[in-house]
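user: Please supply your own:

assistant:
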Amino acid sequence: MEIKDLKKKLKEYMAIERVSGYEKKMAYALKEDFEKYTDDVKIDKFGNCIATFEGSEKDALVLMVFAHMDTIGFVIRRIDPDGFIYVDRVGGVPEKVMTGTPVRVGSEDGKYYNGIFGTRAYHIMSNEEKAKADTLNDLFIDIGAKSEKELHDLGIEVGCPVAYGQAYYDLLNDRISGSYIDAAAGMCNLLQIAEYLKKHQPKVGVRLVGTVMEEYSARGAMMANRSAKCDMAISILGPGAADTPDQRGKVSNVKMNNGVGVTMFNFHGKGTLNGNIVHKGMFELLKKAAEEKDIPIQRQAARGALSDTAYLALENDGVPCMDLGTPDRYSHSPLELIDVKDLKQTGELICHFIDLLDKDFNLNRY
């Protein structure tokens, strides 16, 4: 896929509401796109979308390449008599950027309605209020309703999802900003790989998967494996770029427009006590692919985060895993940012990794 095609698909996927647990619309959109490249596409019982590409080798290994379909967001916990909505978080939502943020409020029949997080007018705030961020418990959403009954009549009830407002901006130098780029970028890579595999049969079997509920429980890929039955896996999930003034020289060396980001180590460490350490054999093969394609790779070691690989790695008798993807700025905020050239390179690198993979690959840790 060319950059213009990636931009078009990225914009389409970013606009689809898909808060964790409510990914149905995204799953069927991805299924329709996968079907342009293979006849073997299914949505499993858990909601994962799985596209199958058979390998040419007898007794071929099976590689799963996946990106999560879901996003962070909110769930309605209370509606007051005047029609104002109170929510709780789904996934890692940064509270301090919520005030005044546009949102899309879901109903039980799948429709979404525009709204905003209300904010007090600046000129009536005390100095103390101006200096602090409101907590989610204090924030409310206004969709213009006059009463609780009006919301009930629309099918907006406790338990319905709320997503960030739809946003997409073309910036300078093939950079894109908008809502929910991180997950959409990975799914664009899946299509990039699917297009390649249709023309170049791999030696190994490949399962391209859009997973559910990564932001909620990080268990979607684990469940997909029980259908896809993979031997090894790549999670397409880019590290945060640490090249802005507030991050530079403090968090990592990862930059935009400087190559594909590979997570060598991650560990949640907040009660979860789980993460993933990259499989050495997979990383060595990735380095070879990167050298042959002249695509730089960047390493990240991150504490305080994890992905689906944390649980997928414990499936079967062990599943070798590697996290890599497009570096992004402002992750989990309503306006994330990526460089589409990085996105294109991520897909190209994974395609060549697949080309180099065969049944003789050593799945053991050492």
